[in-house]
Write a structure and sequence with these properties.
The chain is of the alpha/beta class. About 40% of the residues lie in helices and about 10% in strands. Its cofactor is pyridoxal 5'-phosphate.
Length: about 400
Amino acid sequence: MDLLSDRLNRIKPSPTIAMTTRAAELRAQGRDIISLSAGEPDFDTPINIREAAKAAIDGGHTRYTAVDGTPSLKRAICYKFSRENGLDYAPSQVTVGTGGKQILFNALMATLNDGDEVIIPAPYWVSYPDMVLLAGGTPVIVECGLEQGFRLMPDALEAAITPQTKWLILNSPSNPSGAGYDRAAMKALTDVLMRHPQVWVLSDDIYEHLVFDGFEFVTPAQVEPALKDRTLTMNGVSKAYAMTGWRIGYGAAPEILIKAMAKLQSQSTSNPSSISQFAAEAALTGPQDYIRESRAVFQRRRDLVVAGLNACPGIDCPTPQGAFYVYPSIKALIGKTSAAGATITDDEAFANALLDETGVAVVFGAAFGLSPHFRISYATSDKQLVTAIDRIRRFCESCN
């Protein structure tokens, strides 16, 4: 009898975490490593949020809470959805988890049966397909290349839907590409979904506030209110408020789904950290100046990185609408050889050679379902980014 389950063998470790771990190991060995692999803001959590957490500790709010969130945090989430997205939810339609990843995981585990299909546009966040597989579902990957601006087109969505389709996962702005769907593009997709009432929508809005150049963020249930009764709108505080380590994500959906997700959570992690929930409430209801200030920094860094990468021979880097990633193509470098003799057979070989020869850690495009690309997170200092881009440029110049 094998110790490990067949279900576990369906999935693989997160490639982004693997690259971040390898970079840390090389740094511990004394190498000069610049890691651009992790999707984590480099800013401190705003002070009003930290103070709220301290007050929660001093106030004795250190015990178990309701399984899927305190009533006051759920009310704050309802207020956020109403204020920012024009979506009205009752607290009974809201769930809070240990990070956005748990919200996604709970939803898929609570709803998928063997053979149910989930449409996932590629490039995608690395965890989507593995979560589907772990839940017994079948990922249906729809490639959305550079020519489509890394966005799912309505005809491609229509072609991917079958009688077995249960979910569409949509992430705007996207990790890894930073591509966003404006109102017209989103409406074109929701028009397709209205013709297929069996398909639910999982809208991952975690990068909602990180949009640039006046881009207007919209979410599916906001654009097409008739979809609200079969949409899970997911968000969290990790990216917008630099709270990655606080581990709070949340979602809103019809009550039947929220209750099912709470049932699952009651037998897994139970409630998220009580202190983190108080901090998240302060984030959602307190001053929002931090979002505007951090967004300006990220837009400046985006422009720096896009310009720098496009000056590198063999790299084509489009300008993203949001998030804090770029997803450049290395199509012109495939088949070339690096200065140290590594053959660039694919984007994984590129990422490995780049790390070995220059100390710059990026994530290869195959991890996100679309090659030949790589992802850079520019959620780090300007100084680090300038140095990293210079190393990448010299690496590309040495390839022949």
